[in-house]
Amino acid sequence: MPASSLVEQSLITSITRHAAEGRPYHCLSLYRKHRKQLNGLPPSHFFPVLLKACTSLKDVETGFILHSDVVSMGLVEVDLFISTSLVDLYMKCDLAFKACQVFNKAHIRNTALWTALISGFIENGRIEEGLGYATMMEGEAIFPNAVTYVCIIRACGNIVSLGKGYETHAEVSRKGFLKENVFVGSALVDMYAKCGLLNRAKEVLDNLPIRNVCSWTALIAGYADHGYCEKAFECYEHMQSEGVSPNVTALASILKACIPQNSLDKAQELHCEIERRGLIAKEPILGSILVHLYANSGLLIKARHTFNALSEHDVVTWTALIGGNAGHGHGEIALMFFDRMRLEGGFPNPSTFACALKACACLKETKRGSKLHLELESLGLTTDNDFVGTSLVDMYVKCGLLVEAQQAFEKISNRSCEIWNALIGGYIEHERNEAAIECCKKMQLEGVYPDPITYMSMLRACRGIGSINNGMEVHSEIVRTGLLTRHPALCNSLLELYAKCGMLELTQEVFNELPIRNIFTWNSLVSGYSWADESCNIISSLEAMTLDGIEPDSVSLFTVCHAYSRSGLCTYHHRFSEVVERLGNTFPDYKHHIFMNHVPDSADNLAKVKTMVANMPSWCKRVNWTRMLSESRYLGKSSLGKHAFEFSLSNMHLSLVSLIWNTKFNERDQIKENI
Fold first, then answer.
1. 610, part of any domain
2. Could you tell me if 155 and 132 are in contact, meaning their C-beta atoms sit under 8 angstroms apart?
3. Reduced 3-state DSSP string for 507-539
4. Could you tell me the sign of the dihedral formed by the alpha carbons of 546, 551, 554, 555, in that order?
5. Among residues 126, 123, 119, which one has the least CA distance to residue 134?
6. Which regions of 145-276 does DSSP assign to beta strands (E)?
7. Can you give the CATH number for the domain in which 54 is found?
8. What is one Pfam family matched by this protein (predicted)?
9. CA–CA distance, 471 with 461 (Å, rounded to integer)
């Protein structure tokens, strides 16, 4: 063999070895350096190796050189391995037009070539085109393989195309792919989960002869994404009980399930497992989710420790830490991390800026907020980004700068419902209810449909100015949209509106028509009767609530006690006191301690007052005796006033002067004689 051939063979062997051992950069570097020594005539099987290296590095420039070489050798049209490798390279580099050129010039097209083109379109988000080529492939009597089916099934899941999904499911079942290929089964589980058909996804998983971590993870992720967090936990435990060890994707999915449930115990257990496996530094996605989870839950020190343990900090992790601190009222710390991120070379994304604006709102830091506003304008993020626009308006509103909020709002080109809600909420917060109602009307004129938050704001504005006509219009609209039965908070707002406007019959009518009554709706009804001093209805509602199987809570107790303290409710004392005393033992918070003294006082049972207050904490005794001292004048209870006076005097309460000054002279003298 000539010396040149030996050198050439040695070079090809070295390049191939680098590629096989996962060193694509060295492989291509060696090829570029010694390309001329190959005389442009290496064996054809050598080019797919080089093209694969280009694909892994997305090195399209070297790919162009290789493409030119194989064209000059006349290999593109006849060598399926080369044409398939070129299509795959161009698709991975998002050059679909180049991939199609190669595909169209190929004299022979097999399943692998079609699959490279189809999967490329699907991975680049051009799903309809990918499915179109899949149909063309079948039209040319080229039969899909397992990889093709996996691509098609994933595409159906991404665009929720159940018709095509069912058809493909039937086809792979008929051809036996579900028994032979676990990846096809996993793709089907994933498709049904993404389409929200979780029972169907579980059914497919249960019937798979082999279940690997991918198929389990698809169902876990489906449960987590659709809010069935408990089922996600059960599925995760079932997977482990079958001896399947979770991979990074499975761990990420189950961690995400912990966020809406605020399942800190489960999260910390998973955190320990991740640390034990040494994944916290290797897999940034896991650390990022943990930081987000801890920050959202208010465990800010834990979030910071996890953040510091990460080998790298991406914008998502920084944003989670900044947003967590801002969301829990630590605006100064949030802005400190925002500044540190930039010092370390990180660049904020729109979500990061929104979190920084939230921190400014928390601190009422208008100067810093305005500076961020200018920066966002220079980046062009204020006109078409919902999240940023909403945060800007909200920041100015929270700082009391309604003019600036309106100006920022006007500059946003596409105003979403969330942005309108921020401005409307600002008007209401600053008691500009008429402006809020006008803003709501303008929003609808611009073709933006209100959501439940908008309707609640509108009802609150109507309540603020006693506009019952506007309120009834909103009520009709809510009923027409079908939101009333799906959003209990809207029911509460309606009940509060009618009750505060004195429309008690309408309040009761709305309440009676509710399909589901919870503690919040009952409390709204009781509050309505409390505002109107409807003593009989207050007690009846409290009793009816219990009969409905709903136990009154601390809010119920506080509301009724407050009404009782104003009106006395002496007529209903026996019915009322039993409930209040029972609930008072369940919710012994200071507000109830303060109001409970009115129960026995209204019946003039001084001994009961003394016993009850004696069992309270010392700080609460002072509050109660001082309150009774103040109110004894209005209730005409001089004996109660005397005992309150004695307790307060022994505790050096100067507020006694008020009682002595305002009490009738004969009662005042009686009290003085007993000092």
1. no
2. no
3. HHHHHHHCCCCCHHHHHHHHHHHHHCCCHHHHH
4. negative
5. 119
6. none
7. 1.25.40
8. PPR_2
9. 9
Place of tokens 């409710």: 569
Return the amino acid letter for 661: W
Q: What is the DSSP letter of 67?
A: H
Task: Supply 391's token pair.
Answer: 């945060």
pTM exceeding the 0.70 threshold for the entire prediction = no
Residue 488 in tokens: 């209990």
What are the structure tokens assigned to 316, written together? 């998502």
Cα dihedral: 636, 638, 642, 645 (round 10): 30
570-593 burial by CB neighbour count: b if 16+ within 10 A, else e? eebbeebbebbeebbeeeeeeebb
Closest CA to 253 of 204, 289, 295, 205: 289
Tokens of 641: 């006033």
CA distance 212 to 185: 10
- Residue 675 exposed, middle or buried by CB count within 10 Å (0-12, 13-18, 19+): exposed
Nearest to 545 by CA among 593, 579, 581: 579
Domains of the chain: total:
1
- Measure the CA–CA gap between 249 and 216, rounded to whole angstroms: 10
The string of pLDDT tens digits covering residues 520-530 is 888 888 877 77
Residue 62 belongs to some domain of the structure:
yes
What pLDDT, in 10s, does the model give residues 576-633? Answer: 555 555 554 444 444 444 444 444 444 445 555 555 555 554 544 454 555 555 555 5
Distance from C-alpha of 675 to C-alpha of 670, rounded to nearest angstrom: 9
Could you tell me if residue 212 is inside a domain? Answer: no
pLDDT at residue 422 is higher than 90 = yes
- What the block records as the tokens of 608 is 């009961």
Q: How far from the centroid of its chain's Cα atoms is residue 515's Cα?
A: 27
The set of residues, in sequence order, having a beta carbon less than 8 Å from that of 194 and lying 6+ positions away, is 157, 158, 160, 222, 225
Q: Structural domain of residue 8, as residue ranges?
A: 1-108
Report the C-alpha gap between 245 and 257 in whole angstroms. Answer: 18
Is there a contact between 437 and 462 (Cβ–Cβ < 8 Å)? Answer: yes
Whether residue 95 lies inside any domain: the answer is yes
Q: Which amino acid is at 225?
A: D
> For 370-382, b where at least 16 C-beta lie within 10 A, e where not — what string?
bebbeebeeeebb
Torsion angle defined by CA atoms of residues 647, 650, 653 and 655, in that order, rounded to the nearest 10 degrees: 50
CA of residue 457 relative to chain centroid, distance: 21
From the list 83, 85, 89, the residue with the least C-alpha distance to 106 is 83
The answer to whether the CB of 481 falls within 8 A of the CB of 512 is no
